[in-house]
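User: I'm preparing a small set of examples for a lab meeting where we compare how different chains pack in three dimensions. I only have the primary sequence for this one, and I'd like the structure in token form so I can line it up with the others. Please keep the answer compact; I'll paste it straight into my notes.
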Amino acid sequence: MKSSDSKSKTQAIAAKVAVVLLLLVGVVVAITSPAEAEDAEVAGWVLDSDGTVTPFGGAPSHGSSSGTGQAVSLVANDAGSGYWVLWSNGGLTAHGTAKLFGDGVGNNDASGFALNRPAISLSVLPAENGYIILAADGGVFTFGAAEFYGSVPQVSPAAAVSTTAVAIQLETNGYRIIHDDGGVFAFNVPFGGSIPGVLGDVPLAQPIVDSVSGPNGTYAMVAADGGVFAFGLDFAGSLGGTGRTDIVGAAEDGIGGYALVTENGTVHWWR
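Assistant: Understood. Below is the structure token output for the 271-residue chain.
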């Protein structure tokens, strides 16, 4: 568990910038990276909390979004020809060639749903024929071909209230939900460990804000100070110990590395 000060800092960061970092290989370098990664070519998009989508590194623009509340998540399709934007009330907009299968406010003939806590993250199936909306309490809402395997409020009502979900990692027949204290809830997928399981009662310097996944059920969690906690995933570097508190998102790059993004949109990348 972390202190109430850390929790309020996480909420303040989320209010300032709604995080998104999506990386495509093969365009133009537009990143802050270690020397060994300078020759790589990366592009993507950064989402602001008002729904503004800003491409970087030559990534194409498919427009910005509008909705009620805050824009909280952006996911691009594999081709980079479209993306989805999620809003805190569960509303969803699809841009470019991205397809809408419904959302929490009744778009595309969906019935909608009631949220106990705001929506915070969107995950799209590899086949792009469905997706999952994740709420801050670890609640899971499936659309299209996505399947429901369970949720945090079902298995740990205490965690659903006292901690906040920050990411969901999809695998072939299940998913893994990451909370801001480093807790990990695995549903029909391997459990590789958690931060409370390693640190015990020792609190994090800053809360977990995002995660990245790797092959064979490996993953890493990223804290607001840029600390990276790897569970099976190869550790390539971090910003931990530098005194910063402005890391708001992370993503794997598809070529064996990962990147962290700050609240002003700067990308730090390791490979």
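A couple of notes for your slides: Helices lie at 4-16, 152-155, 157-162, 195-199. The longest strand covers residues 165-171.

User: Perfect, thanks.
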